Amino acid sequence: MSATGQDRSSRWQDIQKGLQFIQSTLPFPGPQEQYEVFIQSLVRNLFGEGNDVFLEGEWTRSVELYTEALNIAEYAESEDIIISQDLKEKLYANRAASYLNIGLHDQALEDSEKALQLNESNYRALYRKARCLKEMGRHQEAYEVVAKCSMAVPQDTRVIEMTQELAKMLGLKIRKAYVRSKLGNSDMSVPTIPPIGMGFCTSDGTFMQDYPPQLDLAKNPLADTHEFKQACSSCYIKTGPGVLDYAYHPEDHKCKKDLLLGRTKHSELITWKLIRPRPTKNQYMGPYYICKDVAMGQECRYLGHCTFAYCQEEIDVWTLERKGFICRENLCDLHGFKPKINLTVPKILQEHHGIFMFLCEVCFDHKPRIISKTNKDIPGLCSHPVTKHVFEEKKCLVHYLRDKTIRYSKIRPYFPHCQMDLCRHEVRYGCQREDFCFYAHSLIELKVWMMQSEKGITHEGIVQESQKYWNMDAYIPVRDVLFGPANLKMQFVCAQCWRNGQVSEPDKNKKYCSAKARHPWSKERRVVLVSSIERKKWTTVRCLPTKKPIPAQFEICLHVAAGKKCQYIGNCSFAHSTEERDLWTFMKDNNIADMEQLYEMWLQSQKPGWSEESSSATRDNGKQIHMPTDYAEEVAGNHCWLCGKNCNSDKQWQQHITSEKHKERVFNSEDDQNCWQYRFPTGTFRVCERFLKGTCTEEELCKLAHGDEELKEWKDRREFLLMKLAKARKDHLIAPNDNDFGKYSFLLKDIK
């Protein structure tokens, strides 16, 4: 355990002992002076613990700790013990920050005013009071408060932004600030005041901006806790009906080593477990979960297609594999070291699709978000219709993906203190620290940071490489081999003749097959055959699966791999042979949509001089379909990052953020459903007494919790939804006075 962890653990033990003692009536074993030190130390420890949990994003917990400290401070006064005004001022100011992040503006306003009563020049309390008033729609009062704050910290960017925003709302003219030149006399220099929101005050009042410890990427993170082995279907044999009922028998045989097995070191269960390939069908960022069927000891109903893990070892590997920390091919390295991660812009775009571009950062960070590119008429400025910012000074790198919705992911600059891991708060309900967070806020940002840490590529270089990738300047090489994958031969034959055991190619005019029956040569009546160099056997290949999005890599069907017939009813989206997998991969990499397009390109390859023509053919039919211009349309107005919707007017924006569909997106997502086991909270947070007696007949319709575990989950879920609501309000995705949330309206009521 680190020194910081030990200090915090010791502090928490002191807090528990202190609370236990003051709740008793026992006399203090010492003089009054020691008792005063004991009480003052307890308040400071609670304050310090509250600050730490605040930095971790546990705002509800920080409120509890600050409240406990304030209650003990009040108790101390009854015991004639003095708690410093400075400490109480910080407690009120910091609790106001916690209330703000939760979305409880009334309580935050009250605490800010109490802090200002103790110290009217506390600029943090002024700023938080102004934020509360602004969120409550009291703009004139908010402007008066933030004006005082602006006099205390005139160069703070957040104070400046709020001042200008409120001035616009009130119709006031924004004046340019006078900036004094630097003085030569060092004695007259002004001390730097830390920006609001970039750190936190510790128990001794000092401002801290600690960076988390760096993660060592040179070593396999699982080397000390897990062990892995390669196997095949001949040595990893099924022993029962369950998906985990397998046994490893290392007999003398020529192992194909096409399966990865893993187990946890020093565990009671020493059985090897299969680590399946990670599902890549979506851009899921949340934690992986065990399949509910497997957890209940049953066979998975989606066997072969399940995107949930079957064991904890699988979760451990998938989590690190998705982040790019490990490569499964090197997990069996006994030394625990992994090769250098070779990430490039084309590799990132092949996995995540989309394109990198520059947008105006001021507009992008605006609440609500505004999408502004370069101005066509004045290239040096952004395209904002009113406030045109200097684009080169204010630009930021963004990854743009047009999938089911439009998604913009900001790529913040990489610094040595950046953590190569996903922010757990951003994944669940949105990180309140935003750009000041040390962790990556998306998978694409994490991959870019890793690439920058190795190659040192700049944001300008990333945009240039992205444009080259889509322009096909560097990724369509001239080929000297036949068309298709390098290890495969390919031919198109008559499907009807092939079913009868005959191989018939088309005639010269490509109208009929060359057999005596002269079957019509049409796209419905021809089939593609491939033969690998290893097997030298012609095999049919089915059409490319139409499932969207197309997976990053195709896998062999488990039934076929086990030597059985595929049991899937319909078109199985898993390959039924290695040749089929290789051809599908080739079609995906070259953006060949169907067999008809593959046939046309194959025909071109049969003509003399195809090596020159193939390059242009792939450009016409391949990735050139998605040009950077497709991603460069002009967008005006506000952008909802939750729904991927752009609004061109204030009226359209208000209609959108007050719609039921949008509010449902604020509180609910498909990934959230995996976190909860019990019913949705009813708003009444009590345990049903009839359920405890076994006489409750309402079952699922009962409005009370059926047990302490369900009640605990309801409370946790309420806090989780409050976090989402606070994030939506902060981003102005919910109207300030809108409290109509349907089944989520219970969030606005206190728990009784």
TrEMBL record:
Q: Which Pfam families match?
A: TPR_19, zf-C2H2_jaz
Keywords of the record, alphabetical order, are: Metal-binding, TPR repeat, Zinc, Zinc-finger
TPR repeat residue numbers: 89-122
**SMART domains, sorted:** TPR, ZnF_C3H1
Its BP terms in the Gene Ontology are:
miRNA processing
Record-level Gene Ontology MF annotations: miRNA binding; zinc ion binding
Zinc fingers, C3H1-type, are found at 422-444, 551-579, 682-709
* Residues of the C3H1-type domain: 422-444, 551-579, 682-709
User: What PANTHER family does the entry give?
Assistant: MICRO-RNA BINDING ZINC FINGER CCCH DOMAIN-CONTAINING PROTEIN 7, ZINC FINGER CCCH DOMAIN-CONTAINING PROTEIN 7A
Name of the featured protein = Zinc finger CCCH-type containing 7A
Source organism of this protein record? Cyprinus carpio
